[in-house]
Hints:
The chain is an alpha/beta fold. It is built from 14 helices and 12 strands. Helix 2 packs across helix 11.
Amino acid sequence: ASSNKQAVSTETTTVKIASLPNVQGLPVYVAIEKGYFKDAGLDVELVKFEAPNQIIDALLQGQVDLSHPGGAMGIAGIADFKNPGKLKIYAAAGGDDSTIQNDAILVKNDSPIKSIQDLKGKSLGIMAGTIQWQTIARELLAKNNLVYDKDVKIVEIALGLQAQALAAGDIDATLIIEPVPTVVKAKGLGKELVPFAAAKFIANPFYAGAGIIRVDFAKENPNTTKKVMDAIAKAVKDIQANPDADRQYLKGYTQLDDATIAKAPIVIFKMYSDFDQKDIDETQKFYDIFTKWGVVNGKMDFKQLIYSPSNK
Protein backbone atom coordinates (compact mmCIF):
# COMPACT_ATOMS: atom_id res chain seq x y z
CA ALA A 1 0.00 0.00 0.00
CA SER A 2 2.87 2.35 0.79
CA SER A 3 4.27 2.10 -2.74
CA ASN A 4 0.84 2.99 -4.07
CA LYS A 5 0.79 6.07 -1.86
CA GLN A 6 4.16 7.09 -3.20
CA ALA A 7 2.93 6.72 -6.80
CA VAL A 8 0.06 9.09 -6.08
CA SER A 9 2.33 11.75 -4.62
CA THR A 10 4.56 11.86 -7.71
CA GLU A 11 1.64 12.94 -9.90
CA THR A 12 1.32 16.55 -10.89
CA THR A 13 -1.64 18.52 -9.57
CA THR A 14 -1.02 21.38 -11.98
CA VAL A 15 -2.98 20.94 -15.18
CA LYS A 16 -2.73 23.10 -18.29
CA ILE A 17 -5.96 23.27 -20.30
CA ALA A 18 -5.96 24.77 -23.79
CA SER A 19 -8.84 27.16 -24.48
CA LEU A 20 -10.44 28.84 -27.51
CA PRO A 21 -13.06 31.57 -26.91
CA ASN A 22 -15.98 29.36 -27.96
CA VAL A 23 -19.25 28.15 -26.43
CA GLN A 24 -18.02 24.56 -26.58
CA GLY A 25 -15.55 25.23 -23.77
CA LEU A 26 -18.38 25.80 -21.28
CA PRO A 27 -17.87 22.64 -19.15
CA VAL A 28 -14.34 23.75 -18.30
CA TYR A 29 -15.44 27.34 -17.59
CA VAL A 30 -18.16 25.96 -15.26
CA ALA A 31 -15.73 23.60 -13.50
CA ILE A 32 -13.31 26.51 -12.92
CA GLU A 33 -15.97 28.97 -11.74
CA LYS A 34 -17.73 26.49 -9.46
CA GLY A 35 -14.45 25.36 -7.95
CA TYR A 36 -14.69 21.71 -9.07
CA PHE A 37 -11.00 21.53 -10.01
CA LYS A 38 -9.99 23.30 -6.81
CA ASP A 39 -12.14 20.97 -4.70
CA ALA A 40 -10.26 18.04 -6.25
CA GLY A 41 -6.94 19.61 -5.24
CA LEU A 42 -6.04 20.62 -8.78
CA ASP A 43 -4.41 23.82 -9.90
CA VAL A 44 -5.77 24.47 -13.38
CA GLU A 45 -4.19 26.95 -15.74
CA LEU A 46 -6.22 27.97 -18.78
CA VAL A 47 -3.93 28.61 -21.77
CA LYS A 48 -5.64 30.71 -24.45
CA PHE A 49 -5.23 30.14 -28.17
CA GLU A 50 -6.65 31.94 -31.21
CA ALA A 51 -6.85 29.00 -33.61
CA PRO A 52 -7.68 25.31 -33.16
CA ASN A 53 -4.57 24.02 -34.95
CA GLN A 54 -2.39 25.83 -32.37
CA ILE A 55 -4.03 23.72 -29.66
CA ILE A 56 -3.12 20.46 -31.42
CA ASP A 57 0.49 21.63 -31.86
CA ALA A 58 0.70 22.59 -28.17
CA LEU A 59 -0.69 19.17 -27.14
CA LEU A 60 1.72 17.27 -29.38
CA GLN A 61 4.63 19.32 -28.02
CA GLY A 62 3.56 18.75 -24.41
CA GLN A 63 2.97 22.44 -23.71
CA VAL A 64 -0.60 21.77 -22.56
CA ASP A 65 -2.17 18.62 -21.10
CA LEU A 66 -5.67 18.71 -22.55
CA SER A 67 -8.08 21.01 -24.33
CA HIS A 68 -11.53 22.08 -23.23
CA PRO A 69 -14.34 20.41 -25.26
CA GLY A 70 -14.01 23.15 -27.89
CA GLY A 71 -10.84 21.76 -29.41
CA ALA A 72 -11.26 20.72 -33.06
CA MET A 73 -12.66 17.21 -33.58
CA GLY A 74 -11.46 17.00 -37.19
CA ILE A 75 -7.95 18.31 -36.58
CA ALA A 76 -7.56 15.86 -33.66
CA GLY A 77 -8.32 13.02 -36.09
CA ILE A 78 -5.84 14.30 -38.67
CA ALA A 79 -3.15 14.72 -36.00
CA ASP A 80 -3.77 11.17 -34.78
CA PHE A 81 -3.58 9.83 -38.33
CA LYS A 82 -0.18 11.49 -38.76
CA ASN A 83 1.11 10.90 -35.18
CA PRO A 84 -0.74 7.79 -33.98
CA GLY A 85 -1.31 7.16 -30.29
CA LYS A 86 -0.43 10.56 -28.86
CA LEU A 87 -3.92 12.00 -28.37
CA LYS A 88 -7.31 10.74 -27.20
CA ILE A 89 -10.76 12.34 -27.29
CA TYR A 90 -12.49 12.48 -23.91
CA ALA A 91 -15.50 14.66 -24.83
CA ALA A 92 -17.52 15.87 -27.81
CA ALA A 93 -19.41 19.13 -28.27
CA GLY A 94 -21.74 20.08 -31.09
CA GLY A 95 -25.25 20.25 -32.39
CA ASP A 96 -27.91 18.55 -34.46
CA ASP A 97 -30.23 19.63 -37.24
CA SER A 98 -33.26 20.33 -35.11
CA THR A 99 -32.63 21.59 -31.61
CA ILE A 100 -29.07 22.63 -30.94
CA GLN A 101 -27.14 24.90 -33.26
CA ASN A 102 -23.38 24.57 -33.40
CA ASP A 103 -22.66 26.61 -36.54
CA ALA A 104 -24.43 28.55 -39.27
CA ILE A 105 -23.91 30.29 -42.58
CA LEU A 106 -24.57 34.00 -42.06
CA VAL A 107 -25.16 36.87 -44.49
CA LYS A 108 -25.86 40.58 -44.03
CA ASN A 109 -29.46 41.58 -43.39
CA ASP A 110 -29.86 43.23 -46.79
CA SER A 111 -27.93 40.53 -48.67
CA PRO A 112 -29.24 39.40 -52.07
CA ILE A 113 -27.98 35.89 -51.21
CA LYS A 114 -31.04 33.69 -50.61
CA SER A 115 -29.54 30.19 -50.91
CA ILE A 116 -26.19 28.41 -50.88
CA GLN A 117 -26.31 28.38 -54.71
CA ASP A 118 -26.37 32.19 -54.62
CA LEU A 119 -22.86 32.12 -53.11
CA LYS A 120 -21.51 31.55 -56.62
CA GLY A 121 -19.15 34.41 -57.41
CA LYS A 122 -19.24 35.59 -53.79
CA SER A 123 -16.86 35.31 -50.84
CA LEU A 124 -17.33 33.01 -47.85
CA GLY A 125 -15.51 33.50 -44.55
CA ILE A 126 -14.31 30.49 -42.57
CA MET A 127 -12.29 30.15 -39.37
CA ALA A 128 -8.62 30.88 -40.00
CA GLY A 129 -5.91 28.28 -40.01
CA THR A 130 -8.07 25.22 -39.81
CA ILE A 131 -8.10 22.35 -42.27
CA GLN A 132 -11.25 21.23 -40.42
CA TRP A 133 -13.37 24.15 -41.62
CA GLN A 134 -11.69 24.25 -45.03
CA THR A 135 -12.76 20.64 -45.54
CA ILE A 136 -16.26 21.15 -44.11
CA ALA A 137 -16.75 24.14 -46.44
CA ARG A 138 -15.43 22.12 -49.38
CA GLU A 139 -17.89 19.27 -48.73
CA LEU A 140 -20.81 21.59 -47.97
CA LEU A 141 -20.27 23.56 -51.19
CA ALA A 142 -19.78 20.38 -53.24
CA LYS A 143 -23.12 19.06 -51.98
CA ASN A 144 -24.59 22.26 -53.45
CA ASN A 145 -22.72 21.88 -56.77
CA LEU A 146 -20.20 24.62 -56.01
CA VAL A 147 -16.41 24.34 -56.17
CA TYR A 148 -14.48 25.58 -53.13
CA ASP A 149 -12.26 28.60 -53.87
CA LYS A 150 -13.30 28.59 -57.52
CA ASP A 151 -17.06 29.20 -57.61
CA VAL A 152 -16.87 30.69 -54.12
CA LYS A 153 -13.90 32.68 -52.84
CA ILE A 154 -12.78 31.46 -49.42
CA VAL A 155 -11.51 34.02 -46.90
CA GLU A 156 -9.94 32.83 -43.65
CA ILE A 157 -10.64 35.04 -40.63
CA ALA A 158 -10.01 34.56 -36.90
CA LEU A 159 -13.08 33.54 -34.89
CA GLY A 160 -13.20 36.82 -32.94
CA LEU A 161 -13.09 38.97 -36.10
CA GLN A 162 -15.80 37.19 -38.11
CA ALA A 163 -18.71 39.37 -36.99
CA GLN A 164 -16.92 42.63 -37.88
CA ALA A 165 -15.78 41.27 -41.25
CA LEU A 166 -19.36 40.40 -42.20
CA ALA A 167 -20.69 43.75 -40.97
CA ALA A 168 -17.99 45.65 -42.85
CA GLY A 169 -18.75 43.79 -46.07
CA ASP A 170 -15.25 42.28 -46.27
CA ILE A 171 -17.04 38.97 -46.93
CA ASP A 172 -20.46 38.22 -48.42
CA ALA A 173 -21.17 35.31 -46.06
CA THR A 174 -19.51 33.30 -43.31
CA LEU A 175 -19.65 29.67 -42.18
CA ILE A 176 -18.92 29.93 -38.48
CA ILE A 177 -19.42 28.34 -35.07
CA GLU A 178 -21.12 29.76 -32.01
CA PRO A 179 -20.99 32.24 -30.43
CA VAL A 180 -20.57 34.24 -33.68
CA PRO A 181 -24.08 33.52 -35.09
CA THR A 182 -25.63 34.65 -31.80
CA VAL A 183 -23.54 37.82 -31.68
CA VAL A 184 -24.25 38.70 -35.33
CA LYS A 185 -28.02 38.25 -34.94
CA ALA A 186 -28.23 39.98 -31.55
CA LYS A 187 -26.31 43.03 -32.76
CA GLY A 188 -28.29 43.24 -36.00
CA LEU A 189 -25.15 42.71 -38.11
CA GLY A 190 -26.64 39.89 -40.17
CA LYS A 191 -28.98 36.92 -40.37
CA GLU A 192 -28.84 33.19 -40.91
CA LEU A 193 -28.78 31.90 -44.46
CA VAL A 194 -28.50 28.31 -43.23
CA PRO A 195 -28.83 27.37 -39.56
CA PHE A 196 -27.38 24.00 -38.40
CA ALA A 197 -25.20 24.05 -41.54
CA ALA A 198 -22.81 21.18 -40.79
CA ALA A 199 -25.53 18.97 -39.29
CA LYS A 200 -27.51 19.39 -42.51
CA PHE A 201 -24.67 18.47 -44.86
CA ILE A 202 -21.91 16.66 -42.97
CA ALA A 203 -23.08 14.61 -39.98
CA ASN A 204 -26.00 14.66 -37.55
CA PRO A 205 -25.31 15.10 -34.69
CA PHE A 206 -22.27 17.08 -35.77
CA TYR A 207 -19.53 17.38 -33.19
CA ALA A 208 -17.12 20.14 -34.25
CA GLY A 209 -15.70 20.33 -30.75
CA ALA A 210 -13.56 17.78 -28.98
CA GLY A 211 -12.03 17.54 -25.54
CA ILE A 212 -8.57 16.25 -26.38
CA ILE A 213 -6.08 14.82 -23.88
CA ARG A 214 -2.41 14.00 -24.25
CA VAL A 215 -1.89 10.24 -23.82
CA ASP A 216 1.48 10.73 -22.06
CA PHE A 217 -0.11 13.03 -19.49
CA ALA A 218 -2.94 10.57 -18.80
CA LYS A 219 -0.49 7.66 -18.45
CA GLU A 220 1.85 9.52 -16.13
CA ASN A 221 -0.96 11.05 -14.05
CA PRO A 222 -3.83 8.53 -13.87
CA ASN A 223 -5.27 9.86 -10.60
CA THR A 224 -5.01 13.51 -11.61
CA THR A 225 -6.54 12.63 -14.99
CA LYS A 226 -9.48 10.92 -13.27
CA LYS A 227 -10.01 14.01 -11.11
CA VAL A 228 -9.95 16.28 -14.17
CA MET A 229 -12.45 14.04 -16.01
CA ASP A 230 -14.72 13.84 -12.96
CA ALA A 231 -14.74 17.64 -12.57
CA ILE A 232 -15.56 18.20 -16.26
CA ALA A 233 -18.19 15.43 -16.21
CA LYS A 234 -19.79 17.04 -13.14
CA ALA A 235 -19.92 20.37 -15.00
CA VAL A 236 -21.49 18.66 -18.06
CA LYS A 237 -24.21 17.19 -15.81
CA ASP A 238 -24.84 20.65 -14.33
CA ILE A 239 -25.18 22.17 -17.81
CA GLN A 240 -27.52 19.41 -18.97
CA ALA A 241 -29.68 19.80 -15.86
CA ASN A 242 -29.86 23.58 -16.01
CA PRO A 243 -28.33 25.22 -19.10
CA ASP A 244 -29.86 28.59 -18.34
CA ALA A 245 -28.19 28.80 -14.94
CA ASP A 246 -24.78 27.87 -16.32
CA ARG A 247 -24.71 29.99 -19.48
CA GLN A 248 -23.56 32.96 -17.33
CA TYR A 249 -20.12 31.29 -17.18
CA LEU A 250 -19.56 32.06 -20.87
CA LYS A 251 -18.89 35.64 -19.77
CA GLY A 252 -15.23 36.55 -19.77
CA TYR A 253 -14.29 33.38 -21.66
CA THR A 254 -16.04 34.26 -24.94
CA GLN A 255 -17.04 37.47 -26.77
CA LEU A 256 -20.57 37.17 -25.39
CA ASP A 257 -21.82 39.94 -23.10
CA ASP A 258 -24.82 39.94 -20.74
CA ALA A 259 -27.23 40.74 -23.57
CA THR A 260 -26.01 38.06 -25.97
CA ILE A 261 -25.32 35.29 -23.43
CA ALA A 262 -29.06 34.86 -22.87
CA LYS A 263 -29.49 34.03 -26.58
CA ALA A 264 -26.51 31.72 -27.08
CA PRO A 265 -27.45 28.09 -27.75
CA ILE A 266 -25.88 25.70 -25.27
CA VAL A 267 -24.47 22.93 -27.44
CA ILE A 268 -24.68 19.18 -26.80
CA PHE A 269 -21.88 17.97 -24.53
CA LYS A 270 -20.96 14.31 -24.16
CA MET A 271 -18.20 12.69 -22.15
CA TYR A 272 -16.43 9.64 -23.65
CA SER A 273 -18.40 7.27 -21.41
CA ASP A 274 -21.69 8.57 -22.88
CA PHE A 275 -20.90 8.28 -26.60
CA ASP A 276 -23.54 6.08 -28.23
CA GLN A 277 -23.35 4.24 -31.55
CA LYS A 278 -24.99 7.12 -33.42
CA ASP A 279 -22.40 9.58 -32.04
CA ILE A 280 -19.63 7.24 -33.20
CA ASP A 281 -21.17 6.56 -36.62
CA GLU A 282 -21.90 10.23 -37.38
CA THR A 283 -18.45 11.40 -36.23
CA GLN A 284 -16.94 8.70 -38.44
CA LYS A 285 -18.98 10.14 -41.32
CA PHE A 286 -17.40 13.53 -40.55
CA TYR A 287 -13.94 11.93 -40.44
CA ASP A 288 -14.50 10.28 -43.81
CA ILE A 289 -14.70 13.67 -45.59
CA PHE A 290 -11.00 14.22 -44.79
CA THR A 291 -10.20 11.03 -46.70
CA LYS A 292 -12.60 11.98 -49.51
CA TRP A 293 -10.88 15.35 -50.03
CA GLY A 294 -7.36 13.95 -49.77
CA VAL A 295 -6.43 15.60 -46.48
CA VAL A 296 -5.27 12.16 -45.31
CA ASN A 297 -4.44 9.18 -47.50
CA GLY A 298 -6.33 6.56 -45.54
CA LYS A 299 -9.10 6.11 -43.00
CA MET A 300 -9.27 8.21 -39.84
CA ASP A 301 -10.79 5.88 -37.25
CA PHE A 302 -12.80 7.79 -34.66
CA LYS A 303 -13.58 4.79 -32.47
CA GLN A 304 -9.96 4.02 -31.65
CA LEU A 305 -9.38 7.69 -30.74
CA ILE A 306 -11.92 7.62 -27.90
CA TYR A 307 -10.36 7.95 -24.47
CA SER A 308 -10.72 5.04 -22.10
CA PRO A 309 -9.29 5.01 -18.58
CA SER A 310 -8.57 1.29 -18.77
CA ASN A 311 -6.48 1.26 -21.93
CA LYS A 312 -4.77 4.64 -21.96
